[in-house]
Design brief:
The complex is a heterodimer of chains A (456) and B (446). In chain A, β3, α5 and β4 form a beta-alpha-beta unit. In chain A, the strands form four sheets. Chain A has a six-stranded mixed sheet with strand order 4-3-5-8-7-9, with helices on both faces. In chain A, strands 1-2 form a two-stranded antiparallel ribbon. Chain A has a two-stranded antiparallel sheet with strand order 6-10. Chain A has 456 residues and is an alpha/beta fold. Chain A has 13 helices and twelve strands. In chain A, α5 runs parallel beside α13. By secondary structure, chain B is α/β, with parallel strands linked by helices. Chain B is built from 13 helices and twelve strands. In chain B, a hairpin with a 7-residue loop joins β11 and β12. In chain B, α5 packs parallel to α12. The longest helix of chain B is centred in the N-terminal third of the chain and has 60 residues. Classes of the chains: A alpha/beta (456), B alpha/beta (446). Chains A and B meet through α2, α3, α4, α5 and β4 of A and α1, α3, α4, α5 and β4 of B. Chain A: It catalyses: Transfers an alpha-D-xylosyl residue from UDP-D-xylose to a glucose residue in xyloglucan, forming an alpha-(1->6)-D-xylosyl-D-glucose linkage. Chain A: Its EC number is 2.4.2.39.
Chain lengths: 456, 446
């Protein structure tokens, strides 16, 4: 056809041109694709993203979710159909969620009402001071140097989604019971959601406020997450250092006040004094908490204002960083960001060094040599999904538990056979003079537990 | 004519002139054919080239595995891995297990709990005099240590661990209110005294390490406090060293194996107690000793089924056969130091209506003990539904008494959710005085 138009030679030229053009175009396209695959094309995306999008839309139609980073589910083994669930004696067949019955409905909240954590109290210091005077049997200082401390922790009243989650909660509370018994600290284990709007990590705020107001004899309230464990049983907190401070958290001044880094401090383990200042702080802290739109919007503000914060709803830790950084003049003088010991110790950098610590150091330091607290942030053993592989989290929690437990067992002459083992072995023979034997760490009868002897 | 001839000639010459045209035609067709072949070859080359490059690029960016239609494979691998880890955690296997068999005590060996101590009272009082800052009586109250525990490995099912957690929270609450310290044991101190016998070496060890403790209170993990106000009337026991719930007629007349209950009892820290523990232990060592002892106990005690020796039957047998021990044993039944759950759990609503905490007896039981439920195992002696709903009810019944100070209660005894019973106020201390069990004069003792 082209022959007729252009003539045979021309037609051939044209064909060759077309052919070359095709090859050029092909090469150009290839170049772009390869470069995009290797370097990425910014907002035009990368092939992986394309693939993921395609897969996800495909899966949407197939009714499946994209796989999470870690899945912790129990494959139900096929159990034979035995008798009906109401008369079975087998615990494995029972669905615990059928047990719970709420006899009353949730209280409907007026959506137009702004959230309030409680009526504003302005004279708490006076009220409390008066009460302490009238109740000398409940002093706020058990020793001249030791304030009365209440350790507060908690978990959900429903069983964990993960089949071994409750076991780790149990070990965690045993660990806290041991530390607190040695150090004369009382424990409050919370299993109630006091305020449905402040659910999740915010649930500690209404609880803390309620406990401060109901226990005027408590001088310091020590909040501790359920995934944090004591690993130095001998370390006593330096109460003297905090005599003029009302809030003690693990963190770094530069990271909070200068960088506004969202992990500049950690609210997984902190001390709060029972006073008006604390109530005021809670009042300022709470407004970002109510779930729903408020928390979402607050999350966006926090991600924008704080360094390195990923996008998610507002959490209490980021809110605290933001409050301290933006209202420094009001709060900073009573806040102590402690980093001389691990009031909170991120587990990732500690758990592999336990054997080295045992070889080189001894309990009582509380710092990198022998951490006071190992905090398993991100492991979420009670839930199904965590940020780290299952094996690493659970095995390391076992090791941390045994590391702390060894210090308790040594009081009685035992120790775990290894940090991974549940079995114990003797470290000293039974003696006919048990009172002559002193435990190495002096934890059986430590000085800070001595009772004030009334002078008769 | 001539034209025709010319034409003919022309046409005659045609055949000769077609010969070169025929050649050029085949040449042309050949050339055309060549071009065709070239074109096809080129097309094939380009197609192959494109195909290769596509594969390379895709492989480079995405990888072969994702192209496999079954991406479930990866998921499946993760699930299998986590299940393997869970199974490993739950099993009793331990990285430190010896491969050789654990030696069990022979029938002829005598088992001892530890080195015999004969002057513990003297040693202890000497220590107390020297350590005045660790007195055995604080604020007029004798120092009590509550001891409980559970096995170190996870329960056979998750529900068991959840109720162990609720149970320890319940004990923490009671002990915080009453100034009692807790030891939660998760270690087997003596391989031979395993299972329910494990409490014996533990109690002995704690007595000897804590001379400042006056009373050691053992409590099973399946026992819950249901009266948060009631205090154990220690003054009643000033001449006794063992306080245990039971019925004297069942004990001496009927020799019943449930005459006493070792799920909740108090031991004074003294020489007498150490001696009793030494006398109690011999039936415990696992293996042939425990089996044989079990047979003796089944033969001697009324109603006892055939199984290996347990600490409760052994204690009953000991107190019956060596009744000189009884002079210092107080068999308590005026309040439920141990309260068998079946007769109590259905009456909680009735109790809440008619009575009040602080009574400790059948009107408001001190302790509700879930004997036989065994939530940590796989099978209990009772239907699961009944056991778990009763345990939940008992837990919430007790928790209501704790939450009262804070102005909340559960929305029903089977509900994990709470509701307000008191509005927030700017003067919370008035309620503290009224409702804090430690301050209000509600604590009664019989």
């Amino acid at each position: 056809m082209l022959d007729r138009v252009f003539g045979p030679r021309r037609a051939r030229q044209f064909h060759r041109l077309l052919h070359n053009g095709k090859i050029t175009l092909l090469c150009l396209v290839l170049t772009i694709v390869v470069l995009r695959g290797n370097l990425g094309a910014g907002k035009f995306g990368t092939p992986e993203q394309d693939f993921k999008e395609i897969r996800e839309t495909f899966y949407q139609y197939r009714g499946k979710r994209a796989e999470p980073r870690r899945v912790l589910e129990e494959i139900q083994t096929t159990t034979e159909q035995t008798t009906s669930s109401s008369s079975t004696n087998n615990y494995a067949e029972f669905d615990i969620n059928k047990l719970f019955v709420d006899e009353e409905d949730d209280v409907k909240k007026n959506p137009n009402e702004p959230y309030s954590i409680g009526p504003k109290i302005s004279d708490w210091d006076e009220q409390r001071g008066e009460w302490l005077k009238q109740n000398p049997n409940f002093p706020n200082f058990v020793n001249p140097n030791k304030p009365r401390v209440l350790l507060v922790t908690g978990s959900s009243p429903k069983p964990c989604e993960n089949p071994v989650g409750d076991h780790y909660l149990l070990k965690s509370i045993k660990n806290k019971i041991d530390y607190c018994r040695i150090h004369g600290i009382e424990i409050f284990y919370n299993m109630a959601l006091l305020d449905a709007e402040m659910a999740g990590f915010w649930a500690k705020l209404p609880l803390i406020r309620k406990l401060l107001l109901s226990h005027p004899e408590v001088e310091f309230l020590w909040w501790m997450d359920s995934d944090a464990m004591f690993t130095d049983m001998a370390f006593e907190l330096p109460w003297e250092r905090y005599k003029d401070r009302n809030l003690v958290m693990h963190g770094w001044n530069e990271m909070v006040y200068d960088e506004k880094n969202w992990i500049g401090l950690n609210t997984g383990s902190f001390l709060l004094r029972n006073c008006q200042w604390s109530l005021d702080l809670i009042d300022v802290w709470a407004p970002m908490g109510p779930k729903g739109k408020i928390r979402e919007e607050a999350g966006k503000v926090l991600t924008r204002e704080l360094k390195d914060r990923p996008v998610f709803e507002a959490d209490d830790q980021s809110a605290m960083v933001w409050i301290l950084a933006s209202q420094k003049e009001r709060w900073a003088d009573k806040v102590y960001l402690e980093n001389h010991y691990y009031l909170h110790g991120y587990w990732g950098i500690l758990v592999d060094r336990y054997e080295e610590m045992i070889a080189s150091y001894h309990p009582g330091f509380g710092d990198h040599r022998w951490p006071l607290v190992t905090h398993f942030v991100g492991c979420k053993p009670c839930g199904k999904f965590g940020d780290y592989p299952v094996e690493r989290c659970l095995k390391q929690m076992d090791r941390a538990f045994n590391f702390g437990d060894n210090q308790i067992l040594q009081m009685y002459g035992f120790t775990h056979k290894s940090l991974a083992s549940r079995r114990v072995k003797r470290t000293r023979n039974d003696s006919s003079n048990p009172l002559e034997v002193k435990d190495e760490l002096g934890l059986l009868h430590p000085a800070y537990k001595a009772v004030k002897v009334p002078s008769s | 004519m001539g034209q025709e001839r010319a034409q003919k000639r022309g046409s005659a010459t045609l055949p000769t002139s077609t010969a070169p045209t025929a050649v050029s035609r085949t040449a042309r067709t050949l050339r055309a054919g060549n071009r065709q072949i070239h074109k096809t070859l080129n097309n094939i080359k380009i197609t192959i080239l494109c195909g290769l490059v596509t594969i390379l690029v895709l492989r480079g960016t995405i990888g072969f595995s994702s192209l496999s239609p079954d991406t479930d494979l990866e998921n499946q691998a993760i699930i299998e891995e986590t299940n393997r880890i869970l199974a490993e955690i739950r099993s009793d296997k331990d990285p430190e297990d010896d491969n050789q068999n654990q030696p069990t005590t022979n029938l002829n060996d005598t088992y001892t709990l530890g080195v015999k101590i004969s002057n513990w009272d003297h040693k202890r009082s000497l220590w107390l005099t020297r350590n005045q800052d660790f007195p055995n009586i604080v604020n007029g109250k004798a120092r009590i240590l509550l001891v409980t525990g559970s096995p170190p490995n996870p329960c056979d099912n998750a529900i068991g661990d959840h109720y162990l957690l609720k149970s320890i929270k319940n004990k923490i609450d009671y002990c915080r209110i009453h100034g009692i310290e807790i030891v939660y044991n998760m270690a087997h101190l003596d391989k031979e005294l395993s299972g329910y016998w494990a409490k014996l070496p533990l109690i002995r060890r704690l007595m000897l390490s804590h001379p400042e403790v006056e009373w050691i209170w053992w409590m099973d993990s399946d026992a819950l406090f249901t009266d948060m106000v009631f205090k154990v009337p220690l003054s009643k026991y000033k001449d006794h060293n063992l306080v245990i719930h039971g019925y004297p007629d069942l004990l001496f007349d009927q020799k019943s194996w449930i005459a006493l209950n070792t799920g909740s009892f108090l031991f004074r820290n003294c020489q007498w107690s150490l001696d009793l523990l030494d006398d109690w232990a011999p039936m415990g060592p696992k293996g042939p000793v425990r089996e044989e002892a079990g047979k003796i106990l089944t033969a001697s005690l009324k109603g006892r089924p055939a199984f290996e020796a347990d600490d409760q039957s052994a204690l009953i047998y000991l107190l019956i056969t060596k009744s000189e021990w009884m002079s210092k044993v107080f068999v308590e039944n005026s309040y439920f130091l141990h309260g068998y759950w079946a007769g109590l759990v259905d009456r909680y609503e009735e109790m809440m209506e008619k009575y009040h905490p602080g009574l400790g007896d059948e009107r408001w039981p001190f302790v509700t003990h879930f004997v036989g439920c065994k939530p940590c195992g796989s099978y209990g002696d009772y239907p699961v539904q009944r056991c778990l709903s009763s345990m939940e009810r008992a837990f919430n019944f007790a928790d209501n008494q704790v939450l009262k100070l804070y102005g909340f209660r559960h929305r029903g005894l089977l509900s994990p959710k709470i509701k307000r019973i008191r509005n927030e106020t700017v003067t919370p201390l008035q309620y503290v005085d009224r409702f804090d069990i430690r301050h209000s004069g509600q604590a009664t003792s019989n």
